[in-house]
Amino acid sequence: MIVVGIDPGIRGGLAIVAVEHGAAPQLVAAIDIPAVGVGAKERVDAIAIRDWLTAHKPQHAYIERAQAMPRQGASSGFKYGRAVGAIEAALALSGIPLTIVEPSIWKKFHHLHGKDKEGSRQRALQLFPEAHALLARKLDHGRAEAALLALYGSQLARQSRIAA
Q: I need a surface site. Which of 1, 4, 73, 117 has the fewest CB within 10 A?
């Protein structure tokens, strides 16, 4: 099964994880959320996301539930909401089913605590050591969280197939 995990937002990430029966999960690809424009005019490039998704053909998408952050300004919150909407639109237009996942659920699954972005990156490197180049920078925490979310989603899908 090929799934995409999404850490939403203009500074988030996308990750494709392949899980084959009996084999270790593989991080196939990971990118930062593509954006166009600068400053106040920066926007998610939904067409680039759609093209990337089309190239990788995931069967399902798992995205972290978007929520307003404490003390986040109205402008930042609006920009974040627009980014999430553009990502969800790209998924819908690609015909990829979407599951929204609570941050606390997938983080608990991976034994992550709080908002430690570097902890997420280190955990992803442990689980996907062959993908070091995709997660090498400290700034790759969005990719790492997307990969962890995809891995969590693949486990959900597997459990639902077993239960059916």
A: 73
